[in-house]
């Protein structure tokens, strides 16, 4: 058996541990790191997913995974393997009945999932398995499918095991949909797998939810509040299901999975947190701008107003470290998410850029918070004339471990076209990817530059009065969108773009500002306020963080849901934990 005994899988590095690789290689160095990590956990290296013959199903280290092929369950696989378990994939309905423990990480849309379960004749068997009270863990859609029906592209009938219908969050009360981020649970009954997380945040990402009622009350093990109380988890006997993502909830999430996989395991109680989780936390995101340097190594770089070259005679690309190592370190340091931006993706073909895919694969094996990747997501024809759709490019990123993709230039062109014609063609990358993977998986990265104005009526785009007047005393500015890494200005403002991409299916906006990038003087509050007030999807404030106070300023003065920084973290000027401690002191809820 390849997997280690369960006891040894307890020693997972937590915040404060150090993360370094002895290798000088940028990508393969991470492989050594992985090995070291496994050795340090006394685990034998795993050779990959092993699909075992039915005789080995009794083996305590094997988990049966119901992956019906509708989306990316790589993170769940990675988390299971990280905990030292092997995976047996369900191929036939009998595999469900033979399972010793079954994990059902529902992905994609409700209707599509039910359709596949019905077509593969798995729906009935799954119901029988659950009715026999056999160990089951449903995740996200895997919880929703247990209910009678869902409004998502419906009404559509579900498995009907739990009374109630799944409906969409109401965004009219000011709460942004999708519900993305780290939220608190109110534990309502002994839930066994949630035993030690009462005061901590877990990661949610969804637009639909099941509501508590008298008919389903005895199933509910926890609720979560997001404008209303919805069902965060259910438990009856050996049946568990959670709306949040344990595989993306850091070490808290891993301990939930561990309790399900081995209910007898001893888990050391975590030390109490400073403050009890009570609501959706503001997120702190570490961003890694990645590109190949002149020597051909993939490096983390960082620009000043998007110029990433050193001011030296050699003019080399600034090198701030190795992508996999830095991402791993930021995870251990407490980053709520990690973003990779392949900043030369606009001119290189990302599927030709295998190191970037490798970076994602290695990172996702050890980093259990959400990963976003951006750069080069667009339709592309390679040198041999082979056409790749943006959906194929995004799918490859998802398969390699991304939870969200971020679209820059291509979203600008799509928004321009949409504003010109008023027609949603369904053909843009944004529409296609969000249709298949859901809005929550599609971020639009906006790269605007300030254009000062004396009079806001001088342009057809939305202008704002700025706190700091322009070089000639101008009191107004509009924010001109750019493409190709800031190289080309386009005839569209950030405000117009944000509203258009929300309509086209973006689930979140990453709002950069070229003027502030790398300056360390704080976020562009005027811009972030403008955009976060204009849309009802979450906005990530980016560019300009230089001190902890800049984070509290952006959260206190705008409706940003998250703040992203790069330079201060790479240069180790401000640790992520200091940012969070400062935010807590300022009365802003964060995940600790
Ligand atoms: O157009 O779909 O190929 O996507 C390209 C992506 O690469 C976009 O998301 C774009 O923002 C990014 N990008 C392109 N060129 C650069 C560059 O720097 N030359 N990086 C670039 C953008 C901006 C932030 C940065 C923050 C925080 N980087 O992500 O990390 O400004 O920095 P700071 O905290 O140090 O101030 P496509």
What does this structure look like?
The protein has 592 residues and is an alpha/beta fold. It is 28% helix and 23% strand. The protein contains 17 helices and 29 strands. The strands form six sheets. Strands 2-1-3-4-14-13-12-9 form an eight-stranded mixed sheet. Strand 17, helix 9 (354-366) and strand 18 (371-374) form a beta-alpha-beta unit. It starts with 27 loop residues before the first helix and ends in a 7-residue tail after the last helix. Ligand 1PR is lined by residues 287, 289, 302-303, 306, 308, 341, 343, 345-346, 374-377, 406-410, 445, 447, 485-486, 512, 517-518, 542-545, 565-567.
Primary descriptors:
592 residues; eight-stranded parallel barrel; binds ligand 1PR; alpha/beta; eight-stranded mixed beta sheet
Describe, in short, the structure shown:
The chain has about 600 residues and is of the alpha/beta class.
């Amino acid at each position: 058996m390849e997997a280690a005994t369960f006891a040894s899988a307890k020693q997972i590095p937590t915040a404060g541990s150090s993360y370094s690789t002895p290798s000088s290689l940028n990508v393969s160095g991470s492989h050594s790191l992985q090995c070291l990590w496994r050795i340090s956990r006394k685990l034998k290296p795993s050779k990959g997913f092993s699909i075992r013959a039915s005789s080995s199903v009794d083996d305590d280290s094997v988990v049966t995974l119901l992956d019906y092929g509708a989306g990316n369950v790589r993170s769940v696989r990675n988390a299971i393997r990280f905990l030292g378990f092997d995976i047996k994939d369900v191929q036939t309905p009998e595999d469900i009945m033979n399972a010793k423990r079954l994990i059902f990480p529902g992905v994609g849309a409700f209707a599509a999932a039910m359709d596949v379960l019905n077509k593969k004749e798995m729906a009935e068997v799954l119901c029988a398995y659950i009715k026999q009270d056999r160990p089951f863990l449903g995740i996200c859609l895997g919880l929703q499918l247990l209910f009678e029906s869902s409004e998502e592209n419906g009404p559509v009938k579900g498995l009907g095991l739990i009374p109630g219908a799944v409906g969409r969050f109401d965004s009219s009360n000011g709460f942004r949909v999708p519900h993305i981020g780290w939220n608190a649970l109110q534990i309502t009954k002994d839930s066994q797998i949630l035993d030690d997380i009462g005061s901590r945040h877990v990661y949610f990402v969804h637009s639909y939810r099941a509501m508590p009622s008298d008919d389903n009350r005895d199933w509910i093990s926890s609720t979560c509040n997001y404008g209303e109380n919805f069902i965060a988890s259910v438990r009856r006997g050996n049946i568990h299901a959670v709306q949040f993502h344990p595989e993306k909830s850091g070490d808290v999430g891993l301990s939930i999975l561990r309790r399900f996989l081995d209910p007898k395991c001893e888990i050391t109680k975590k030390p109490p947190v400073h403050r009890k989780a009570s609501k959706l936390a503001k997120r702190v995101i570490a961003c890694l701008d990645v590109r190949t340097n002149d020597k051909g190594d993939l490096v983390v770089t960082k620009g000043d107003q998007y110029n990433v070259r050193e001011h030296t005679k050699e003019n080399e690309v600034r090198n701030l470290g190795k992508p996999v190592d830095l991402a791993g370190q930021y995870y251990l340091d407490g980053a709520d998410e990690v973003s990779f931006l392949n900043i030369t993706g606009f001119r290189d073909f990302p599927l030709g850029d295998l190191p970037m895919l490798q970076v994602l694969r290695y990172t996702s094996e050890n980093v259990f918070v959400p990963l976003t990747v951006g750069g080069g997501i667009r339709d592309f024809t390679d040198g041999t004339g082979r056409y790749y759709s943006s959906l194929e490019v995004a799918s490859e990123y998802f398969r390699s471990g991304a939870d969200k993709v971020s679209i820059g230039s291509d979203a600008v062109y799509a928004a321009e076209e949409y504003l010109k014609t008023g027609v949603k063609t369904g053909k843009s990358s944004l529409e296609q990817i969000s249709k298949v993977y859901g809005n929550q998986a599609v971020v639009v990265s906006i790269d605007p530059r300030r254009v000062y104005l004396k009079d806001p009526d001088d342009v057809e785009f939305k202008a704002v009065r700025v706190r700091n007047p322009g070089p000639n005393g101008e009191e107004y500015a509009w924010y001109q969108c750019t493409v190709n890494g800031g190289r080309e200005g386009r005839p569209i403002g950030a405000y117009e773009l944000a509203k258009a991409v929300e309509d086209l299916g973006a689930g979140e906006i990453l709002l950069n500002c070229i003027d502030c990038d790398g300056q360390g003087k704080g976020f562009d509050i005027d811009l972030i306020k403008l955009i976060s007030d204009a849309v009802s999807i979450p906005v990530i404030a980016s560019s300009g963080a230089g001190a902890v106070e800049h984070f509290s300023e952006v959260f206190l003065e705008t409706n940003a849901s998250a703040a992203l920084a790069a330079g201060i973290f790479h240069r180790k000027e401000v640790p992520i934990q200091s940012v969070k401690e400062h935010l807590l002191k300022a009365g802003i809820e964060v995940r600790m």
